[in-house]
């Protein structure tokens, strides 16, 4: 039987993601939003692309949580995006309310699902979903690291005129201004970037990566990125739906790993049919560990504001 995936929020990220899932043809999809008729209209439009693109994916748009029942995986994208000049953290309270309400309903209808959280501020919203759901940490995972790493890989490939496929990298930490692009572990066809680029150029690329979301928010003027974010969620879904055991950076509720406790922070994670299957502990140098701790502290500040530690 095909997997059933629900995507909550049929806005830019949610609807682009549903189209991408449809093209994979490996799961049926339910797209939920509170706006009347809108998810139904988008779902119908996507269904009608099936004969042209060659997929048989069943796509249902709905305003009724009953249609999401017994989902295997639920992706939560509902919530406000930021506007130019705002930080992701400015969305904290408004999106906490939305993510809490949505999670309650999802748990009611799909108690065995795996949750992938996308709503910002990402790490704090993942913690809200974990607390409200009462699910084990293996079944509540945040999407940020694949996106941040994709940005880093894009900029490195552009700089060197290389294929993005040859660029490997890891961006760890929270999905905010303090994220930690690990340039020491970035390689191009196996060659460390320190041997290919001067240190100051690497530092500029690291900073552009940290500001990657804001750069797009500024250009768009009214909303934030959604093509690369939805592609990043799809990579996580591929590994879970197809039980591929791929390792990729995800926001995970840490319990002692990297010396961090009871907090969502981006780390390399193995994803499979059960959701999180293993946290991979890369040995960090002292300066990297300091940066990761600083990034975790920034997440902790938000958790303290929400009072959900
Ligand atoms: N983790 C990450 O790396 C990324 C996170 N984001 C975040 O994803 C979220 C969504 O972004 P966009 O899709 O661009 O925004 P959008 O405004 O296009 O879509 C949000 C959708 O959520 C819906 N919604 C609001 N309250 C709801 C509720 N209670 N139940 C169900 N649906 C509800 C709205 O009607 C709207 O259709 C934002 O918080 C954004 O910051 C965006 C890109 C990357
Ligand atoms: O920048 C934003 O607000 C949306 C986001 O998280 C990203 O694109 O990284």
Structure description:
This protein is α/β, with parallel strands linked by helices. The chain has 2 domains: 140 residues, Rossmann fold, CATH 3.40.50; 162 residues, Alpha-Beta Complex (L-2-Hydroxyisocaproate Dehydrogenase, Chain A, domain 2), CATH 3.90.110.10. The protein has 10 helices and 14 strands. The strands form 4 sheets. The chain has a 6-stranded parallel beta sheet with strand order 3-2-1-4-5-6, with helices on both faces. Strand 10 and strand 11 form a beta hairpin. Helix 1 packs parallel to helix 2. The longest helix has 21 residues. The chain is globular. The mean pLDDT is 98. Oxaloacetate ion binds next to helix 8.
Quick structural overview:
This is Malate dehydrogenase. With 309 residues, this protein is α/β, with parallel strands linked by helices. It has helices at residues 12-24, 38-47, 50-53, 92-109, 122-133, 145-160, 199-210, 212-220, 227-241, 286-306; strands spanning 3-8, 27-32, 59-62, 73-76, 114-117, 140-142, 167-168, 171-172, 180-181, 187-188, 191-192, 246-255, 261-272, 275-279.
């Amino acid at each position: 039987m095909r997997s059933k995936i629900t995507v909550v929020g049929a806005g830019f990220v949610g609807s682009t993601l549903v189209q991408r899932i449809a093209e994979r043809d490996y799961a049926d999809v339910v797209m939920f939003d509170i706006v009347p008729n809108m998810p139904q209209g988008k779902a119908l439009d996507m269904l009608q692309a099936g004969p042209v693109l060659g997929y048989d994916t069943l796509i249902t748009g709905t305003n009724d949580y009953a249609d999401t029942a017994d989902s295997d995986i639920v992706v939560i994208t509902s919530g406000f995006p930021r506007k130019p000049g705002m930080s992701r953290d400015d969305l904290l309270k408004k999106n906490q309310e939305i993510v809490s309400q949505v999670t309650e309903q999802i748990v009611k209808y799909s108690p065995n699902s795996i949750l992938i959280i996308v709503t910002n501020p990402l790490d704090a919203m993942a913690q809200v979903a974990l607390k409200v759901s009462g699910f084990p940490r293996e079944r509540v995972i945040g999407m940020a690291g694949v996106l941040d790493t994709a940005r880093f890989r894009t900029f490195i490939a552009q700089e060197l005129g290389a294929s993005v496929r040859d660029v490997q990298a890891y961006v760890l930490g929270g999905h905010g201004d303090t994220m930690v692009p690990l340039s020491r572990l970035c390689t191009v066809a196996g060659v460390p970037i320190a041997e290919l680029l001067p240190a100051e150029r690497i530092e500029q690329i690291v900073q552009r990566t940290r500001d990657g979301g804001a750069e797009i928010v500024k250009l768009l003027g009214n909303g934030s990125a959604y093509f690369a974010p939805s592609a990043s969620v799809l990579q996580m879904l591929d590994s879970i739906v197809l039980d591929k055991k791929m390792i990729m950076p995800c926001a995970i509720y840490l319990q002692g790993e990297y010396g961090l406790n009871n907090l969502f922070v981006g780390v390399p994670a193995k994803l499979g049919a059960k959701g999180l299957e293993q946290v991979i502990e890369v040995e960090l140098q002292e300066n990297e560990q300091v940066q990761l701790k600083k990034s975790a502290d920034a997440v902790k500040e938000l958790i303290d504001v929400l009072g959900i530690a």
